[in-house]
Structures are given as structure tokens and as C-alpha cells.
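Progress against Task 2.4 (sequence-to-structure conversion) is shown through the following example record, which the project officer requested during the mid-term review.
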Amino acid sequence: MKPLLLLFTVVITGGVLNLFPSSADRLQPSDLTYLGAFRLPSGTTDIQSWGWGGYAMTYYPNGDPSGPSDGHPGSLFGTGHAWEHQVSEISIPVPVNSVSKNLAALNTAGTIQSFRNIYNVGSLEMPRIGMAYMDAQGSQSSGKIYFCIGQHLNEEEDFMTHGWHETTLASPQTQGRWYLNSPYNTYNTNDIMFDIPTTWAATHTGGKTLGTGRFRDGGWSGQGPALFAIAPWTQGNPPPTGTSLQYKELLRYDSSNDCNGSGCNTMTDYHHSDEWAGGAWLTAGSKHAVIFVGTKGTGDCWYGDSNGPCLDCAGERGWWSTGFEGRIIFYDPDQLAAVAAGSMEAYEPQPYAYLNIDQYLYHLTSTQQWYHTSAAAFDRENGYLYVFEPYADGDKPIVHVWQVTASGGGGGGGDAVIKLNRSKLYFGGTVSGQVSPAQTILVENDGSGTMNWSVYEAGSWLSCSPGSGSGSGDISVSVNSSGLAAGQYSAVVSISSSEADNSPQSVTVYLTVYSATSTSEPIGQFATPADNAQVSSSIPVTGWVVDDIGIVSVKLYRGPSNNRVYIGDAVFAEGARPDVEIAYPNYPAAYKAGWGYMLLTNFLPSDGSYQLTVTATDVEGHRTELGTRTITVNNAAAVKPFGALDTPAQGGIASGSSYINWGWALTPMPNSIPFNGSTIRVWIDGEHVGSPTYNLYRSDIAGLFPGYANSNGAVGYYIIDTTQLENGIHTIQWTVTDSGGNTDGIGSRYFMVRN
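C-alpha cells generated for the chain above:
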């Protein structure tokens, strides 16, 4: 009779267990970025379908060779209806992150090979299946899909659990069956399979590169997940039927049949109600982790039904807990290596972290729900983790996708280092296809040596240009909301380089799609000058504005509302208003909400009072008046120098070692500015860097301002070596002092360095 373990509790908070010292080689939950999900195709019959299925899965790198070049190459093999676990092969569409959990927004996989009854498990009681594709091993001439088979109740000794078959399902040439003569063989070796990295296996398991294991509720398999390394191809091609496979034990806890809850060696926070249904060996650069995916019991644990302990329950009887969570638990391969070497017992490794994934799941009906997830598969080359969620699409599962990256470094192994100017971008769009303007990711090499990089965008509604580059460069990111339902979406742009030690790096792109009537007008402020200000010469007209889709223009006018005269368009300066970016973090391009226009009041018709008005227009055509200001211009009484900078423009881009900073300066008579420009000072980021070459003629300035001492030589320039500046935002200003000792600043602005 099964032992009962009643009402025990272990409390752990957060996502990190911290039972062992931290290792720089460990992947962390933060290294997994959720990309979204996709749906599965329809079947042909109740059994030959994905309905009530999704309990085994493996990634096939050679699958779907004629499919779209969408950044998700290869295919997935998986099992359908749980009565027979027939096998089908599907394509991998681009995952969609629908924050509103809208199934209609998800892409649907296509069928490459229809369901075939490969395993013939229809006679087994609640069969269990695991599968893993591996390229040709040993003397094999083709890659194989390895499988393991078990059932819920199975006391038969030496039950034949393992085999392999070809990837062509119409002619599988199934071989087997074999078994592992391990403790609890019928319960801890026949539900989970995945490949083990060859370099690790060569060092620690004698080249055994196939992992097999299982967790069975109630602890009969061991009170935590089990894992063994095998290499069937070393015992024949194929091994004879009935072969006892050689294995290396990597992880195994005490079975509940061997102890009665006292002195047992168990996984930390173990519950008999746990369900670890999938696993994978993750790698990213030099980082790694062995993960198990499943449903974790929390709170109290008992045998009975959902209401409490009982032996003859009317409800769904089994192992229950107060609550359940969908989790990914992380094990350190270094500790599994210690087990393989005999320096650590197989029950000593413990999860060092976990990731609660319930926030991404679609089919959660209560906090006491069984089966949050099922099988998992890993695309090692591209870093994608695939996980089945059963019953999320009616009776069918859906597939969730995570990108696995070594965010702390260890990617390409070179001396280059990928540096990005931001980690998130926000866009808005409408169901009719109006979207935010494109935004830019700046890529830099923050290390040494050459860095060639490539771009991948994980979203059908997302596009990037260019797709590759060298050194530093800009990537333009655009979105397309046409055909998307109203809701929230996210996808990841990955930038990778074989020369960069921290490759790949990623930017998460968020898109909110609004219905036609739910968008808002721009919001913002007209900040300077102050109302009723007394002004002369050049004055900055500034403010900020954001919109749920995007701003297309900010325009400055003079005059009353019934007779306004257009002055000019303001420009946006990235980084000028960090306070607004903090206040509106999810608005598109909030990092460049600050706008400005340098108004040279000398160009106004005359001295006197003027009403200034600023309006903002968004993508959908909504027009908002940001405010009005009255200014009084008195240039006739002005004594300070005035002028303007022509380059760089407000928010403009400067690059190269010989960038020319043009400007001009005059001062009212009777004073003058030295022709050698010695009293004009150039300031970059608040630091005095030199004086311009001055006294150059420009006809428009001479014509507009005749009679000044410097009218025929008002223009100057200063050469800036922008390679000595960090890529990113900077400030520049000239200050001018005339012969009368009058000083004023001209042309103060933000600009961007791009090298």
C-alpha cells in the first residue's frame, strides 16, 4: 500500500533557493526571456490529434527546411492524445506574447508529418513517454529519435523502457526495447529525455550524452526528479532487444517506499503532489543549467481529494497540496558532475533557483489546479526553450517559448563586448494598422577587437534594419499592427556576435494594440519661456509630449488663435527629460519626450508683445494644444551678444573625427567680437573645449543684420573629434563675450554622437 504523507509544509520565498554557493557558470531565471506562445494544428481523428496530448517533445534542427526564414528554424516532434501518444512533426511559427491571453492572436504551427502510432502503448495504464532527437552517434548513419516508455502503475521487473526510431514517421524502423537496471527502474527512468552537451559528457559521463529520467507523484520514483546518462549506441547498432543499458547516475532521491518521511533524502520543499513532466540541459555561452519543468505543490500536502485527506473519496483522488505553481527549477551541472565522479551522493544536489511561470500560462482556473505544464524541448543552437501547456486551447496544448541568453557574459568567447543603449522599447498601434514611428537601438563594441553582429527579431509584427553590421551602428526597429487583435504583445530583438563574450544581447519590444475608438490624444507641457517673459536675442522654447501611439509633429506659432503664423517645428531631444520618461515609462519613445525650438527673436517682425502657441499632432491625427505663452521682445535695448548654432541641430547626430560645429554670433553696437574668435568659447557637456575659427562671411547673416561690427564676419566653426566622446547624448553651447564685457550663451542644445 502507498504510504501517506499528511500535512507537511516547507516555506520558501522568492525565486532563488540559495542552498549552495553561487556559481558564475550557472544560468539564472533572469537569463530566460519569455517570447510568447503558438497554437497547434488540428488533427484528423480524436486519437490522431493534439487533444489531451503534449506529454513528450523534442527539437529537430533539420526539420522544416523549406519553411520561412523567421528566426525559428527546425521543427518539433511531439506526442498527441495520451491514450496512444502517437507522434507528429510540426513547424515552429513565430511566438506571440499576448498579454491579454488572446488565443486568436497566436500563430499556428503547421503539420509536417501527420500522427503515426510509433510506440504502441495503447494497452498500458496511463502511459508515460519521453523523447529526444540526437544526430548520428557512433556507427549510425542517421540521426535518431530516442524514446522511453513507462506507465502510472508498473511493478514489472526489467520492464523494457527504451528504444529509438528514424525521423521519417511513415518508416520509423523502431529499435529496442532496452531498460536500465537502476533502482526504481520502472518509475524513474522512463518519462523525461534530453541531450547532454558533448563536451560535458566527454569529461564526466564517459561520453554518455543522452539523459533519461522521470518523476512520479507519490515519490515512488524518488522524492524529486531523477536523471541518468546513457549511450545505447555503444552497446550495438542497435543493441539487442532486452539489453540492460549501461548508465551513469546523476540525480536520484530516496523513494517513498524506502522510508516513511523520516530521515528521507528528498528534494528541498518536496511534495508528493509535485509533477515534473519535462526537462532540458540549457546552455548559453559558458553558462549552463539542468532544468525540470512542471507543477510544484505549495503549502500543505495530503493524499485524498482537493478538499482534504481521504482514502475513499468521491472526487478526483490523488496527491494534493494547498496550492500549485507552474515552475522551472534549476540544477547546477557542476554538482551533477560531482555525483558522476562519486564525490557527492545522488540525493545531495538541490535546485539553486526556480522560475514561477504561471503569469504566462493560459489555462489556470484555480490555485489548486494540477498539470500547469508538460513536456519541454531545447534548441541549443538558437537558444529557444519550448514548453507544452496542456488544455490551454480547448483540449489541445499550446507551446510557450523562452529565449535563453547568458546575460552575464560568456557568449561568443571573443574580446568584443556587445553594448546596447536600451533594454526595452515600447510601441503603440491600432487594429487598422496605424503604428508608432520607428525607434533606434544603438549597438556598440564595448570591448576590443572586431565585432561583426547580426540581428534577429522574434515577432511577425516586428522588423529590424539592417540585419547585420560591424562595430557600432544603429538598428531601426519598426512594428506592424495590421491583422492583430486589440491587446498587448511583446517580442525580443536579439543581437549576436561570434566575437563578443556576452553574445547574444536582447531588447524586449512591447506593442499595445488599441481598438479604433480607444486611443488617446497627446499629453504634454509648454515649459519655457515663462509667461510674460521679457526676452531678446535667442530664446529656447521647450516642453515635453507623449502619446499612446506616437507624435508626428510639434509646431510653434505666433499670434492669436484666429490669426496664427507658423514659426517652425520643434525637434525631439533624446534624454532631455528623464523625469518624463520615469513618469510615462510605457509610452512609445518616452525617452525623447522633450522637445525644443531655438527662437531667434531678431527674426520676428519687430520688438513688441507676441503670443506663442505650441501644438502636438499624433499618428492618428489628434491635435492637442500644449499651451500658450506671451513674451515681450526688446532687442532694441539689448546689449548682449546673440546668434545661433547651425550644427549640430537640436537632437541631431554628430560623428567622425572632424565634425564641423558651425555657428554665428553678433553683438549690438558699439561693441564688437574679436575677429579671431578668442572670446567665443565652445562648451561640450559643460566643459570648455576651445574657441572657433571666426570672422567668416555669410550673405544671409550680413543681409539680415547690416551695420553691426561683425556683420561681414559673423560665422565661425569648431572642429570636434567625436570619437573622443561616448556614443550617446551630449550637450553643446557657445558663450560669447564682446568688447564691452557683455556675455551670453547661444545655441545650447542636446546632440547625439554616433560612431
